[in-house]
Amino acid sequence: MSFKVFDNKRPTIGVLMDSLNAFDEYFEQEFAYLCNKMDLNLLLFPEELATRFRSDKKGTNIAFQFLNSNAIDGLVLMNNAISIYEEEEQFRRVFEKYGKHPLVCVGNDLEGVTTVVEDGRSGLRGALRHLIEDHDYREIAIINGEKTHRHAVNRFNTYKEMLEEYGIPYDEKRVVQGDYTVESGRQGVAKLLDENKATFEAIFAANDEMAIGAMEELIRRGYRIPEDMKILGYDDIRPVQFDFSPLSTVSQPVREMAKAALEQVLAQIQGDMSVKKIVLPSHFVKRNTCGCSVEVMVNREHLVHQGIERIIQDQEYKSFMMQSVHEVASAGDTEALRESIVQALPHLGIRNMFLALYDKEAKEVQQWKIPLKSSVFLAYREMERIREVEGREFVTEEIIPRELQLVDGRKTMILGPLYFHEELLGYTFFELGMQYARIYESIRKQIATILKFILLLEDIRQTQERLIESEKMAALANLVAGVAHEINTPIGVSVAAASYLEKQNRDMAAAYEAGKVKKSEFEQFLDNNLETASILMQNLNKAGELVNSFKNISVDQTSEQKRIFQVRSYLDQILLSLKPKLKDRDVDVHIDCDEELAVLGYPGAFSQIITNLVLNSLSHAFREDEEGTIRIQVEKVREKVRLVYSDNGKGIPEEDLDRIFEPFYTTNRSGGGTGLGLNVIYNLVRQKLDGQIRCTSKQGKGCRFEVEWKEQ
């Protein structure tokens, strides 16, 4: 049996829309109102029209790949979501997987598909006729949409037709292209005035957002609207109806289009798959920006309430953003992000929210295609965090794991991709709790940014751990080299002694067989053998001690076990392992420690601390040809072990003292320093020994490290 996101016996309608487009947002609000009224589930798939204009928006068209009959029963496809594809055939190839299921296209003709469109030509002709006939304007500029966008082409053609119809010469200097955003409206005015040096009395913008941007730029330059410049828009989105200077615009029948689209997709779900084309008229609305003083009748009490509600929601959103960024930046881990989101969701009116991460290996293989598997990063159902499913793998196309199926009441959900520049991360799946869907887009983008920051931190931590482990292995390598060097002498003497014994015995055996052994020679032979055997035993014992020393320290450095160890003798063993590093240097090491001092603790951590401190002095405190002194003092004070390590080298500059324990911080990178030696010491003291470490130093007078920890 196929899995469906909703299991509440209601039809689920999907809407693929452009999340940046104000018209689509207006349509979504009307459509959501109707779905709520008719007790239908609504699943929104937001796209971003600006995919081709902004290089960091490639991840948005991933939403297409979630469309399947398991997720939804019918689909309403907004024109602007199609427009990110330059050719209709290119779109059809992407859309094939949806198959022959209930589908209605809004705003554009699509062959073989039921469509709901507006007659934009009649409304725009009325708007331009108003400027030409009623205001006698002939110099009209246009900020058009992208050339490949179907509606932009139609609006531009209508503009040219009206100029020709009234005998007005077409002037390319009065034509600029935008991308349906407020910013492109500002840029359009700047290009008309500064680059094209165009003269014009009025501007028609191909949508209201570009018209708003054009007005803002004109006002910034000192123009008065409408006294110095007339502005026309297109769409009649809600904000322009109540702006400081209400915008004259071509009004699309959004409410009627939403109602017709829902009726048609429900008819298809019920079995009527006949293809229809529904055309609804647009009309020109006179307001202030065309120079007509028209009083806009609105329910001011409703408007004030709506404005206050949006301000509150914006403040809640900003509070969520600031709190999330601060908390996550401080904690720097994924759990902090989960908790921050969970605490903020009730304040944002969100009852259900799911966040999934794509399988890492799969997303690197096929960029901009959803992988087969994803994992649950966060599950929040009916205002409760479902911890037990976090980390669980599931089939990506199912959107959520089967055990999280939504069952209680109708819902409006919104699915959006999580991406950071060229990297796909996963997706969010929200229940729409607030009226303004754009806030969800902002939340989604902020989550993606914070998530990427955390994942980078985790990568850095893992890299740091690997480097620290390699630093530990380097210390162990020094120990091996030290013991190998020291063991060479006793083993070499032992081999020579054994060879001498073998020759002596062979010569004596030959003399004995020849009957030429004298008493004095035999006695000399015995004395030599005893002396050589003694030398052999002494050197073999020394080698054995070295091997035992190496065994103890190497086991300690790779073991997490604690034990009682004699500090003084253990220090001798550590310094013996460092002899290859010390033998060519004129640096004396003095130990001040009671011979009987025994400590219960982690000898491996102690060994690594001493080793790294000595190596740090040899690398940084003294030049290779310089004399120096290192002092190591260890004592027990009450229940604490106190280690004081000092050298009389060149010291540490005051400005560097606060940073010496930071990972990768080194003043000797050119000499091969990794910047991890003191960081390893710091972590061992603070985490392994649960102790404290501090460093004092003056340039030219050496440095002093004081370490204290409670006996384990």
Task: Supply the key terms.
single chain; 712 residues; alpha/beta; Rossmann fold; Heat Shock Protein 90; twelve-stranded mixed beta sheet; six-stranded mixed beta sheet; 18 helices; 44% helix; elongated
Q: In a few lines, what is going on in this structure?
A:
The protein is α/β, with parallel strands linked by helices and 712 residues long. 44% of the residues lie in helices and 20% in strands.
Distance between the termini: 60 Å
Question: What low-confidence regions span 5 or more consecutive residues with pLDDT below 50?
Answer: 49-60, 295-312, 362-367
Percent of residues in beta strands: 15-25%
Structural class: alpha/beta
Main sheet properties: 12 strands, mixed
Overall 3D form? elongated
Radius of gyration: 40 Å
User: In CATH, what is the class of one domain?
Assistant: Alpha Beta
Helix content: 40-55%
Q: What is the annotated CATH architecture of one domain?
A: 2-Layer Sandwich
Outline the secondary-structure elements.
Layout (H helix, E strand, L loop, with lengths): L11 E7 L3 H16 L3 E7 L26 E5 H4 L5 H8 L7 E4 L7 E6 H15 L5 E5 L5 H16 L9 E3 L4 H14 L6 E4 L2 H13 L9 E6 L2 H4 L6 E4 L2 H16 L7 E5 L1 E3 L14 H32 L2 H11 L8 E6 L1 H6 L7 E9 L2 E2 L7 E3 L16 E9 L2 E9 L6 H76 L5 H39 L5 E4 H11 L1 H4 L4 E7 L4 E4 L1 H19 L6 E10 L2 E8 L29 H12 L3 E6 L5 E8 L2
Parallel strand pairs: 1-2, 1-3, 2-17, 3-4, 4-5, 5-11, 6-7, 6-8, 8-9, 9-10, 20-22
Antiparallel strand pairs: 10-12, 13-14, 13-18, 14-15, 14-16, 17-18, 19-21, 22-23, 23-25, 24-25
Helix pairs in contact: 1-9, 4-5, 6-7, 10-11, 10-13, 13-14, 14-15, 14-17, 15-17, 17-18
